[in-house]
Fold this protein.
Amino acid sequence: MAAFLAARLFQAMIALWGVATLVFFLARMTGDPVLLLAPENATEADLQQLRVSLGFDRPLPVQYADFLAGLVQGDLGRSVAQGVPVADIIAARLPYTLWLAGGALVVALGLGLPAGIYMGVRRQSRGAKALMALVYAGQSLPTFWSGILLILVFGITLGWLPTSGARSVSSMILPSVALGLLSMATFARIARTSILDEMPKLYVRAARARGLGARATVVRHVLRNGAIPVISVAALEIANLLAGAVIVETVFAWPGLGLLTVQSINARDFPVVQGVVLLGAAAAILLNLVADLLYSAVDPRIRLGGRAT
Amino acid sequence: MIARTLPRPRPALWPFIPILAGFVLVAVFAPLIAPHDPDAQNLLGRLKAPGTTARDTFYLLGSDELGRDLLSRIVHGARISLAVAIASVVASGIIGTALGMVAALRGGWTGTIIMRVVDIVLSIPPILLAIITVAVLGPGIVNVVVVLALTRWPRYARVAYGQTLSVVTMPYLRIARFTGAGPVRLLWRHVLPNIIGPIIVVATLEFGLMVLFEAGLSFLGLGVQPPTPSWGSILSTGRNYVSTAWWIATFPGLCLFLLVLSVNVIGDTLRDRVDRGSD
């Protein structure tokens, strides 16, 4: 297990380094990163001054080493528009995105798991088939449309819930549902498949032979075994929820990292965009690692096989 | 990542082929189908509800904040949506397939580096990668295609790599090498035809994603720029007028949903038929 853990940690570190490198060169893809940072009406003298003050006149390897050294210390640079460290801006907005992703996860699990379990246990019923079609449709639903529809129905027509900003707990409901719907489909599918995998196994028949009722068998045995894939997929889904927040936050004017990113692009504040993307990628890599570890912890075949990716 | 090799039950195929064909026809013949000029403003006919007439103009699906006919904008938007999706699927497909085949055939350092880059790019959530690339390149329809091609090629590279590896050991390939086929001829004539099936499956599944990405980027104001009609940018206008004009966001969103749904059903059906190693 220790060797496996070390190998996977090493892989994750390599991926993080690769992402940082990719972002570094992406910023220099157009040749002159100062053009990304300067206001549109800057003169050539302004540009030159900015170049020197930000260190872009130094050789590329020096800039690269400096960039990586900064990242290791948690230094994401300074915002051009606000002049404060990017890390501070992100720290102020991060809780909102985490709350939103958390709410979405609750929605996705709360709706997706019961739907998936029902579809797995009663696979041939009409209800299961109708649910399956709904889940399938849910996967093709663009969040920026479902978000607007939710606003239309629950915010405007019925007037039940606030539709923008983050003033109270009720502000969180609509964005969480909009964001959670996509993952709901994933959870429903995984739960269904996992139940279908477990149902034909011998322990189910044994439990039934001992006289345990159908419902009790599912609740006490099948659900526990079926939970394993669901838990590790949940780790992957959190990464998707964090990324999906970019669009949902824009729909609901939710003041998290997604809205910050879009505002920063419009304000030509590249360091902030870069910081959010690096953070999002790091979160995705770490959650992927967590998913792999969870999976291998319960299924030794994976780490013995040596290929978890 | 944990392989998602789940049996995917999917809806019947038959309703979705006509829907997709319908969108393609609408896109191709957009100028003939659209009842009005999609950019013609009519400031006295702003935010008219579906089915109303204002100043001799009949608005079947209503009008937007500048009095432009929503139906005409949606019809022309289909063009943008499909054109961007096709262009980016073709671009990323060619780049990814070529790099994947080369990585498998050359192996060694070249192969390792290409496939490591594939792993890294795939580890970044695609929407974030697209956003930072747009932040560098700037918005606009051509840049959207460039962004999508740059962010999506690794999907094809991974499939092409795996498929090519399983093909290179085949006797016919060794014979082709003996008879003096160069690397380009080898890949083009002997490898590509044998791996194209799974690649096409990936391309179909990616197609729906590309439609959503273009709309998403345009919704954020980072994609196709106004006044060019894109479903995503119409939706973003619709968000601002949602309390007074529900139709602006509802109809383009419905089109987007139907298009993506039918592409996904067709893609999944294709995958089940070709199957093996496509994901």
User: Anything to note?
Assistant: The two ends of chain B are 11 Å apart (CA to CA). Chain B has one domain: 16-32+61-278. Chain B touches chain A through 53 residues (CB under 8 Å). Chain B has ten helices and two strands.
